[in-house]
Amino acid sequence: MKKNTLNPNKTSFLQRIHIDGWLFLSLLVLMSVGLVTLYSASGQDTGQVERQVTRLALSVAVMFGIAQIPPGAFRRLSTYAYIAGLLMLIAVLLFGDMGKGAQRWLDLKVIRFQPSELMKLAVPMMVAWYISKFTLPPRTINIVVGFLMVAIPTVLIAKQPDLGTSLLIASSGIFAIFLAGMSWRLIGFVAMLLGGFAPIMWFFLMAEYQKQRVLTFLNPESDPLGSGYHIIQSKIAIGSGGVDGKGWLQGTQSQLEFLPERHTDFIFSVFSEEFGLTGVIVLLIIYLCVILRGLIIASRAQDAYSKLLAGSITLTFFVYVFVNMGMVSGLLPVVGVPLPLVSYGGTSMVTLMAGFGMLMSIATQKRFMSR
Amino acid sequence: MHRKRQAIRDHSAEANLFARRASIAFIIVVMMLGVVLNNLYSLQVKQHEVYQTRSNGNRIKVLPVAPNRGLIYDRNGILLAENRPVFSLEITPEQTDDIDATLDGLTQLMGITPEERESFNSSLKGQRRFKPIALRTKLSEEDVALFSASKHLYPGVQIEARLARHYPYKDALTHVLGYVARINKKDLQKLVEAGQEDNYAATHDIGKLGVEKYHEELLHGTVGYQQVEVNNQGRIIRVLNVDPPVPGKDIVLNIDLSLQIATQQALEGQRGAVIVSDVKTGGVLALFSNPSYDPNLFVHGISRKNYSALLNSPDRPLINRATQGQYPPASTIKPLLGLVGLEEGVITEDYTIQDNGRYQLPNVSHTWRDWRKWGHGKVDIAKAIEVSCDIYYYDLAYKLGIDKISEAMYEFGFGDFTGIDLYEESDANMPSRGWKRARFNQPWYIGDTIPVGIGQGFWSTTPIQLSHSVTTLVNRGERIIPQIIRGYMHADSTVEVIPLKTLRPIEINNQHNVDVVLNAMHDVVHGKEGGARHTFADAPYQSAGKTGTAQLFSVGQDEKYDAEKIDERLRDNAMYVGFAPFENPEISVTVVLENAGGGSKNAAPVAKKVMDFYFRDRVFDTEISKVDE
Predict the structure, then answer these.
(1) Residues 207 to 246 of A: which have CB under 8 A from any B CB?
(2) Of B58, B229, B237, which to mutate for an interface test with A (greatest number of A Cβ within 10 Å)?
(3) What is the mean pLDDT of residues A78-105?
(4) B228 to chain A: which residues are within 8 Å by CB?
(5) Which of the residues B331, B388, B432, B543 is marked catalytic?
(6) Is the dihedral of CA B383, B389, B394, B397 positive or negative?
(7) What confidence score (pLDDT) does residue B161 get?
């Protein structure tokens, strides 16, 4: 079966069920690593592991379902999804539920729903749709419109406030524009503009706790028992893991509960403590496989929309990995971004796997598309 | 329309552009993951040791473990101070569903008082929820039984045991053993100064008085350590390593418990002190100061009411009269002064005076009187001791002069600490010219010397000094420091005896002089006119001694001393020093009775009771021989 997936010209069983073998295998390995680490991080709580298995199964089902939808359908849905998402974001700001000090949830009576999760896919879809309407590389005016499409939801989500998600959404849109061939000169100009935007963000857009996080990031030892506690304990966990790690279930920082948020955002610290640099390298290679496979799928995609969407989803996945690893190891400030497919938690996992479903669809459904 | 525009797109150029961009993106991805990896490499390899240390610092705590305090035995191996488990009722808030309901239940079960409840509630606020809090600290056996029967009803409530000192013989040994009590701020400061605070890190109690205080270093032992792993709450997860404490040494005292109790009984109803010493070793066989009190009261913190009762009692039970009480020695020092006179050559064995009841110095109007108004007639040194002739001693004091008396008596241990292993000791006062100058800024008058001849005037002694001087006399100048401790008890019940502590001996020029004095002391007990002859008439052993009656109240010239008319606290102190058997002395007995009257009538009978017990009534325990050698 695997052999067949390497050869796109043959119709294999996997292709018939619209699954990209390499990508799916990499994702399954990641999920397994996640479960093994979660068992340790949760203090051997099988209940928590079981709930995570349920979520993973649900996410895989969602991925599988979406993989069956032809890419053309995504393209046609792009504008509706984006507009619906935008309206809901505004609704959240007006009547959303408070949860942990941030207004992220929309209570639809039947289910509680985070519109920002929808936007994680809707924004790259919208930008890809818009940019791919024109010939590539895009003209400056198109790029400006594209940036606007990214900026509106980003600001709305940042105001909830949810810095992590707004960062992910902003990057997903920007990646689509970048992949479309935005000129390097323009990229330099935007980079400068963003540099100028930083102080405005600091003084006008960021909430006090977000500023605190940045300050803590710059010098965690200034408040070792308060806001710096998380990052200090996380660095101790990672550093004390060494090359070989302390062994599964043997991480003292995690098992003795010195490490906070150890089964969610800081699960990578648990992993690093118990499996050491060796384990970290293996994990990075798996993530790199996913990203590489995603970019290959994007390059082989039939049309510009599919390419941009697949590329954007893949690179956004990378942003998850980079930001999470960066923040727990003291490279980046702590913004709430989970380690994809490893951290405990539901909503973002479903979104991630829905994205991979789109990738699968793009990877396997091209031969049925008309030119 | 769209299709049409797409048709003119250069698909392969767009695909190439995208592939280029995707490649660049992948390179950037690899580079950025490289940055992450580099950072992790720095944490996990370069700074690994720093973080390893910090990780261990998080989880590993070193806890001190208190050593068990050494036990105290009497010379026959009877336990005098033991470590008993005391039980306290503790509640762990975390394991208790409803603390108020639990408290209500316990109140009904064992009558928890509102005060106990209040103190529990106040410590509840400031503590970690998994740490047990004491509700009642000293459970009675009944409490323990009551609670154990319904323990299952109270999750999170448990009985905790800890070792605490207990003195089974209560007030019989208080002034010897002293007691331990909780380490207070002052103790802590002393420990810090001595560099001992680490050694006491886990210790609850410290010796506050008596042998417990003097031999604290022996009894305490050395702290041990426990390396434990804790979680972020500080809860102990497991013990990693134990460096066990070294328990304190078990010590054996010279005290003979049965004799000690006999002295307590002999002193019953009297303020005063009795010391029984082993004259061969200087060992203190019994030492009792009456009144006494129960030292166990102090171990768990004495109540304010009980403490002020002890402190304000006119009988002053907190004072150790045997070592701290200062009394004029009165006639008990006549044998010693006689020996000094003979040794100095100011008198001879045959030298006599004519005692008509009065003594006057040339050119001094004051008249000193004998205790017997009409005197004793012709008196030599032997008779002067036997009948306790005052006039002879006024004359002897005059002949010797204060400098010689003072110097000689200082050698016998007066005016200085004996060095007994108790911190509660007074050096009393052996007067001298220098002392009077320093104390009153006055010259020494000849009139000050005369009463010193009969152990009065400025002279004061402690009972332990008197006891020590008798030991020195009996040993013909060999000076052995009195000691309560005898040695160490090893695990196999053998005793390692501590060598005697001695001082440079007093040189005796002529041993016959000692015989004269000792024989005279024998006459006090067995002679025709001896002051203690009636008391010891039926004694089955030969002993020697000297009575003393110390005046606390100056009777005016030509006035008669009338005990009935004088305030009780100003009545004479009754004194007695003695030793037995006469031929081969084993023990000395020193008795001081405050405001009891004459020495021969009151103190001698107490000494006899003690000697009778030692030589006649004492049951010789077979254990003794085993312990002794």
Answers:
(1) 233, 235-243
(2) B58
(3) 79
(4) none
(5) B331
(6) positive
(7) 83
What pLDDT, in 10s, does the model give residues B305-328? 889 999 998 889 999 999 999 999
Looking at every residue in chain B, the average pLDDT score rounds to 89
Interface test with B, best of A299, A302, A337 (most B CBs within 10 A): A299
ipTM value, please give it.
0.90
pTM above threshold 0.90: no
How far is the alpha carbon of A336 from chain B, nearest alpha carbon, in Å?
A: 18
Fold for the domain defined by B63-253:
Penicillin-binding protein 2a (Domain 2) (3.90.1310)
- Please tell us whether the domain made up of B257-293+320-624 is placed in CATH 3.40.50.720: no
Q: What residue has token string 């100011």?
A: B346
What confidence tens digit (pLDDT) does each residue in B293-307 have? 999 999 887 888 889
Angle between helices B141-149 and B99-110 (to 10 degrees): 130
At A46-65, the pLDDT tens digits run 999 999 999 999 999 999 99
B23 CB neighbour count, 10 Å cutoff? 12
Residue A130 half-sphere exposure toward CB, CA atoms < 13 A: 24
Please give the Cα distance from B621 to B242 (Å, whole number). 42
CA atoms of A330 and A236, how far apart (whole Å): 11
Hey, are the CB atoms on A291 and B26 less than 8 Å from each other? yes
Distance, in Å, from the CA atom of B21 to the CA atom of B38, rounded to the nearest integer, reads 25
**Longest distance between any two alpha carbons in chain A, whole Å:** 61
| B12 classed as catalytic | no
Distinct helix (H) and strand (E) counts, chain B: 23, 25
Tell me if B45 and A277 make a contact (CB, 8 A cut-off): yes
Per the CB < 8 A criterion, the answer to whether B378 and B392 are in contact is no
Token representation of residue B544: 């020697």
DSSP state of B554: P
Percent with pLDDT over 70 in chain B: 95
Nearest to A150 by CA among A279, A322, A312: A312
Both tokens of A100, joined, read 């942990």
With residue B369 as reference, give the H or E element that holds it.
Answer: strand B367-369
Residue A132 forms contact with B (CB below 8 Å): no
Where are the extended beta strands (E) located within B448-557? 479-480, 485-489, 495-497, 502-503, 544-550
| In B150-241, alpha helices (H) | 174-177, 185-193, 210-214, 216-220
Whether B561 and B555 have beta carbons less than 8 Å apart is answered as: yes
Comparing CA positions, the residue from B231, B234, B278 lying closest to residue B255 is B278
Give me the DSSP letters along B522-546.
Answer: HHHHHSSS-TTTTTTTT-SS--EEE
Read off the DSSP letter of residue A220: G
Angle between helix B390-411 and B334-344 (nearest 10): 80
Q: Is the distance from CB of A30 to CB of A342 less than 8 angstroms?
A: yes
Angle at which helix A46-67 crosses helix A21-41, to 10 degrees, equals 160
Tell me whether residue B157 is exposed, middle or buried, using C-beta atoms within 10 angstroms of its C-beta: 0 to 12, 13 to 18, 19 or more: buried
Strand partners, B496: B488
Q: Which residues of B touch A284 (CB under 8 A)?
A: 33, 36-37
| Cβ <8 Å between A284 and B54 | no
